[in-house]
Design a protein that fits this description.
By secondary structure, this protein is an alpha+beta fold. It is about 40% helix and about 25% strand. Strands 1, 2, 3, 4, 5 and 6 form a 6-stranded antiparallel β-sheet that branches. The radius of gyration is 34 Å and the shape is elongated. The termini are far apart.
Amino acid sequence: MKVIEFIREKRRNLQNQNNQFIAKLEPRFKNLSDLFTHKITMPFLNTLNNPWFSQFSPVDNEETKTEELLIQVPEAEKTYKNLLEKIDTETFLGEWHLVEQECIDQFAEVTGDNQWIHTDPIRAAKESPFKSTIAHGFLTLSLIPKLTNSVNVDSNPYPEAKMVINFGLNQVRFPYPVKAGTRVRASIKLINLVPMKRSIEVVNEVSIEVENSKRVACVAETVLRLYF
């Protein structure tokens, strides 16, 4: 019997300790509850602005922070504002450029792509549906820097930038062939900008048209990074 009484006494002591502990915590839970209540009943009080609570916010992501805190260097900010006014407009129209068989042959030699549709004018005249040799699609694509005048150091469209990097392509299509001996030219339309602290990502839609044809030879989304 003494053992049973001892166990019961221990249980009562533990229960009392638990009650005391809960009593101490209740005010703290109440304060936290009030915090959430104010968030619901007082819309002007943004709980996420609380320095402590923001550390645990499920919607506090890096993209939002970056967007809110982005401060560009002056040169980047100036260029970004200027380019922003040109979104969805044609920013460049180039001169006509002749694509000769010699150029096609040189490209075939460098790349190892010597298919007869590119390099054999006699066979192409007989067997090709185009009745002529045609430029490689990648040759047309590789002409973009020249056709858009971006390799001309005397005509820099981004004078404030310290460096311009070819960041790649989003997509490329070759809707129409470029026959040997025909002329092509390129136009540029600015379609997107992504500002960063010391750089700007510029996405252009480049269209390469063939002279005397309503169809374009190439449409490519080029991505440039301007660094300041």
